[in-house]
Amino acid sequence: MTLNKKSLSQTKQVVSRDPVLDLERKPVDESRITAFESNLRGRLLRPGDEGYDLSRKVWNAMIDKHPGLVAKCAGAADVVASVDFARENGLLVSVKGGGHNVAGKAVCDGGLMIDLSGMKSIRVDVAARTARADPGVILGELDRETQAFGLATTLGIVSKTGIAGLTLGEA
Ligand SMILES: Cc1cc2nc3c(=O)[nH]c(=O)nc-3n(C[C@H](O)[C@H](O)[C@H](O)COP(=O)(O)OP(=O)(O)OC[C@H]3O[C@@H](n4cnc5c(N)ncnc54)[C@H](O)[C@@H]3O)c2cc1C
Q: Which of 72, 73, 95, 116 to mutate to test the pocket of ligand 1 (most atoms within 8 A of CB)?
């Protein structure tokens, strides 16, 4: 399958009209997509696939964007492969952590959404009083793991907000 206008018929809104970044105007060969998919430990979702709509859903229910592809990353290697794939094919990219950005920046119309929300590892170093957390972790999950050791860090007040966007200072 080639990602062209027909296969992207579910894409209702196309924000980017830049010909370099617009997947609708710059189809990607199926062979490249298949090679990318086979290189992922996570899943590659297309419009209509089970889980696609759940993945593109964010906290702000008014956001209704339709990525051309969604890479559900399972680890850092998947993230590297996704960024490489997008760069090599000149695709628009969005990155989803906890999905709480009110403007819905985590989701793109067309292009590739790199969905990190399934990456949930948290490791607490009690001696160093630090924690390392994956980009899909939300505030309540980090609190739970740190509080088990009597530790806490400054976060927001809504437990389902993502640590990624909050840490990066995204509104
Ligand atoms: C109900 C609610 C309560 C909130 N409460 C607070 C609060 O108490 N304190 C506070 O400071 N803020 C709060 N916020 C704001 C929140 O911190 C930001 O919206 C933050 O960006 C959410 O992060 P996220 O990972 O959930 O969002 P996402 O929408 O997934 O990501 C936000 C932005 O960061 C980018 N991004 C995400 N992960 C990565 C990554 N790994 N690499 C590069 N870019 C990435 C996304 O592309 C997007 O542009 C709240 C927001 C909501 C909706």
A: 95
Say how many Å lie between the CA of residue 77 and the centre of ligand 1: 23
CA of 151 to the centre of ligand 1 (A): 23
Number of H helices, E strands in the chain: 5, 6
Euclidean distance between CA atoms 16 and 7, whole angstroms = 18
Within 6 A (CB) of ligand 1 lie: 58-59, 94-102, 105-106, 116, 135, 156-158, 161-162, 164-166, 168, 170-171
CB count in 10 Å sphere of residue 30: 12
101 phi/psi in degrees, rounded to 5: -60, 125
Contact 23, 32 (CB under 8 A): no
Determine if the pTM surpasses 0.85. Answer: yes
Measured CA to CA, the distance from residue 120 to residue 103 in angstroms comes to: 24
Residue range 103-123, pLDDT digits in tens = 999 999 999 999 999 999 999
